[in-house]
Amino acid sequence: MVCLGNICRSPLAEGILRDKASKAGVDLEIDSAGTAAYHEGELPDRRSIAVAKKNGLDITNQRARQFKEEDLVYYDVIFAMDQSNYNNICRLTDNEVLKSKVDLILNKSYPNENIAVPDPYYGGDNGFDEVYSILDKACDVIINELI
Ligand code: 4NP
């Protein structure tokens, strides 16, 4: 799960998918990262922690890290939150097979529409509720494809 800072959207996506995989008994290795290094080592944004908690998830074990080219090799599927994240990830390699692992996460719930998960960083708390709900639906689709 990849966004820009790895403190707002992708930590929620990681926490939500981890919880659904565990409840569905699907064995997945899940991680998140940001294309930028601004927040390296930090906890998720307090508003992401709060919305996760409100929905029964604890994401305070997560720490931000920057997405690396090796992640493209290691992971089978890479979900970008928006087109800018997608472009930043694909810029790390010339290898078309690696690039083909990358998709926008909302193409799971809205196929081929290339919709972005809105960046809630500069907005209010409502934006985090909206992001949670959007990611929850997308992660349901991801898990349902695996069970
Ligand atoms: P995220 O949100 O990409 O969902 O983690 C942001 C976090 C930090 C910044 C921008 C977006 N920032 O500019 O520091």
List descriptors.
binds 4-nitrophenyl phosphate; 7% strand; Rossmann fold; mainly alpha; 7 helices; 147 residues; two-stranded parallel ribbon; globular
Strand content: 5-15%
Q: How many domains make up the coordinates?
A: 1
What is the number of E strands?
4
What ions, cofactors and ligands are bound? 4-nitrophenyl phosphate
Using the alpha-carbon principal axes, give the shape. globular
How would you write the strand order of the largest sheet?
A: 1-2
Distance N to C terminus:
20 Å
The assigned structural class equals mainly alpha
Q: What CATH first level would be assigned?
A: Alpha Beta
The major beta sheet can be summarized as: 2 strands, parallel
Q: Considering the protein shown, what is the CATH homologous superfamily? A: Response regulator
Radius of gyration: 14 Å
